[in-house]
Structures are given as C-alpha cells and as structure tokens.
Amino acid sequence: MTVSRTLLGGLAAIAVCAAGAGAQAATPRDVADLVGARGGSGEGQMAARGYDFHHTAEAPNGKYGYWWNSGRQDCVRILTSDGRYAEILSVAHGDCGQKSGKKDNSAAIAIGAAALIGAAALAAKSRDDRDSRDDRYDDRYDGRRDGWAGYRDIVGRSNEAADGMLNRRGYRYVGKDPLSSGHERLYWNPGDRQCLSVRTRGGSVADVREAPRRACR
Q1: What integer pLDDT is reported at residue 138 of this predicted model?
Q2: Which domain covers residue 196, as residue numbers?
Q3: Is residue 181 assigned to a domain?
Q4: Do the beta carbons of residue 69 and residue 98 sit within 8 Å?
C-alpha cells in the first residue's frame, strides 16, 4: 500500500506541474529578436512577419498590444514600456478574439493527468484486493474441507510419489522451506493460478493446504 501511495503522490505532483506548464506563456521564436526593439520599428516588423494588430490594453508599467498571426494560429501580447518592446508572449487565442486553440490547453493537460491518476488508483486497488484474497490463509485447515477433497490421497505418500501425482494434476514444484519439523514444499498450477503448500515429515506428506499466490512467485 505504501508503494501505491507513493506512486499516486508522484502522479499528482506530475499533474500539477503539467497543468502549470500548459498555462505558462512563452516567447514565439519568430519574434523573439524583437524584445528590446523600439515600438515604431517593431510594429513594422510584426506586420512583415504575418501579424495583424488587434487591440491595446493598459498594463501596470506600460501598454499591452495584441497581435494575431492567422498562418501560425498564434496570438501574441507585447508589453511596450518606455517606448520599447519589453516582453513578447504567446497568449490564449481568445485574447485576439479567436476561438480557443492549442495555446490554451492547460485544462486538457490537467484532465489527462487526472485520468492517469484515476487509472493508477484503480490498478492499485485491484492489486491490493488480490493480495488481500491471497492472504486469506486458513491455518486451521485439517485436510477435510470439501474444496480439498481431491488432495486427501496425497497425505501419507512419499515426497517422490506426491511430486508425480501433483505433476499429473498440472502442478509444478517451485521450492521448499524448512519447518520446525520437516519442510514445506510449494507447487504452482499456472492454469488455475493456484499455489499449494505440501508439508512433509520424515520424507512423506503430512498435510496439504492452499497457500498465498505470492508464496509461489
């Protein structure tokens, strides 16, 4: 669960950063060289590069001029301060009276990031539910539960005989772990995705029970 929370936390941070990055304005490359130019000469250059003047607006330290380039589908805002172009930025299409386009995509980025977080949360919940089912391991099992009727005939058999019987039933030997008296031998059935614990003493099977799937991984 700690891993899942770490993953979701990381995705949430990415979502915030992505949305912020989408909302940030940048200086278009085709007019970046005009930053610092005099307003009069800059207007001629903007027109020569395919921009049409749209309108002006008051700025805290000067005036904003808005220009639209239909070929590039770009709206540019120029801050003129002390007679020079102090800042040139791409802004939302709506600032030039156009329908919103690729420059105003922060909402789409945020929605996509939120969808990614939701998918990760569902995957984490599914994994946790599966592990929880695997953890339902009944230590009180005595070999007589109806669901294990097909394995009673293994109890009392030698380890070699049990191997052969389980192999014929689709199980393969995975490994063994030492116990206080004997060993626990693990078998995996890839078709049924079932893990089987076979406890042995003195070279013969003493008990057969279900084990968590991850024990066979």
Answers
A1: 41
A2: 146-216
A3: yes
A4: no
∠ Cα 30 18 76 (to 5°): 25
Is residue 85 within 8 A of residue 34, CB to CB? The reply is yes
Q: Answer yes or no: do 211 and 153 share one domain.
A: yes
SS3 category, 84: strand
With CA atoms as reference, report the closest residue to 54 among 104, 25, 86, 94.
94
For tokens 């626990």, the residue is 184
Number of domains observed in the structure of the chain: 2
| Residue ending a domain, choose from 41, 69, 101 | 101
| CATH number of the domain bearing residue 191 | 3.30.1450
Closest CA to 184 of 163, 168, 208, 166: 208
Looking at the domain assignment, is residue 212 inside a domain?
A: yes
Give the pLDDT mean for 1-14.
54
State how far the alpha carbon of 19 is from the alpha carbons of 62, 93, 94, 105, in Å: 29, 18, 19, 9
**Lookup: tokens for 117:** 């977080």
Name the pTM for this structure.
Answer: 0.40
State whether 92 and 33 are in the same domain. Answer: yes
Both tokens assigned to 87: 């800042």
- Other Cβ atoms less than 10 A from the Cβ of 96: the count is 22
Find the mean pLDDT for residues 2-31.
Answer: 61
Confidence at residue 109, expressed as pLDDT on a 0 to 100 scale:
58
Q: What is the per-residue pLDDT across 99-156, written as a single tens digit (0 to 9) for each?
A: 865 544 555 556 666 677 776 667 666 565 555 544 444 433 344 433 355 687 889 9
The set of residues, in sequence order, having a beta carbon less than 8 Å from that of 125 and lying 6+ positions away, is: none
